[in-house]
């Protein structure tokens, strides 16, 4: 029994020495950090201009906000055209790529005599750059009589995503 007590005491002494030795040779490292996102996403419409108006037509006064464009074109006779040039700018710090372009004219409820055509903006829009695209409204020259339905709307969605 005495031998067991001595062994137990020796084990406790060795464990104590090992604990002290570990504490002497162990170092705790602390890492503190803070991160801030400074990139800015800011793709926006910066302008709309009328580039072509057939004689006798009214391009109205086109309006825009950062994310929308509105125009009200008035065409008079077959073959008339009004073209709008829309400017989009990357005013942020994050480069962008064109994800999708969808222009949907209301062919179900609108006049088939009114035809919309568009061009696409640039595929890549890097920080600080701008691009333009056009929307043209045409009174189909093949119509010889004034159609019963005289209006047509278009909805366009241009989506840029992070490059």
H and E string:
HEEEEEEEEE
User: Mind describing the biggest β-sheet?
Assistant: 4 strands, antiparallel
Just name the CATH architecture.
Sandwich
| Helix segment tally | 1
> How many separate structural domains?
1
Helix percent band: 10-25%
- What spatial order of strands do you see in the largest sheet? 1-4-8-6
Beta-strand content bin: 35-45%
Quick one: overall form?
rod-shaped
Mean model confidence by pLDDT: 92
Q: How far apart are the first and last residues' alpha carbons, in Å?
A: 77 Å
What would the CATH topology be? Answer: Immunoglobulin-like
* CATH top level label: Mainly Beta
Uncertain segments are none
Summarize the structure in words:
- The chain has 163 residues and is mainly β.
- The chain has one domain (43-162): Sandwich (Immunoglobulin-like).
- It has 1 helix and 9 strands.
- β2 and β3 (69-70) form a beta hairpin.
- It is rod-shaped.
- The N and C termini lie far apart (77 Å).
